[in-house]
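**User:** Here is a favour to ask of a fellow structure person. Please take any protein you like and set down a full record of it. No explanation is needed for now; the record alone will do.

**Assistant:**
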Amino acid sequence: MGPHSYDPGVSENDVMWTTEIPESSIDFDLRDEEASLHVKNVLVFDAFTVPNSLDTHHPLGKVHAIIKSLRMEWRGTTVRRSHSDCADAFRGKYFEDHATIEVVATTPPSPATTCPSRAARNGFRFVSDSANTSVSHFAQIGQEHNGIFF
């Protein structure tokens, strides 16, 4: 998203860019080899740049932001793959698909700051092109079983 990196941040145990979403936001149909993710109003941070997002000290700072809407669709399987590793108790079935995405994200305006580079980035709104303009170079969905579920 250009000069902005919208993500939930890095947790204290170094888990990156994950956040809880309602189960109803996800639809996955293994028989049809399709999946979708639709979320609204997800609280995240605008860390401004990916390197700043990855640095737990955030030298450029970060501000609260909102992913107003995110819609991703995976469908149109081109390749089917499966993998099994008994030694590591892992197996999976995967589908390379085409994916589309449409997103609106905002960094609300914040109070004035003494750092001009940060102030100029607040109040930013990103609106992607429509999903039908997406170009998909690689997209994959699948189902895994590991550990006691192997």
Remarks:
- Helices lie at 50-54, 116-119.
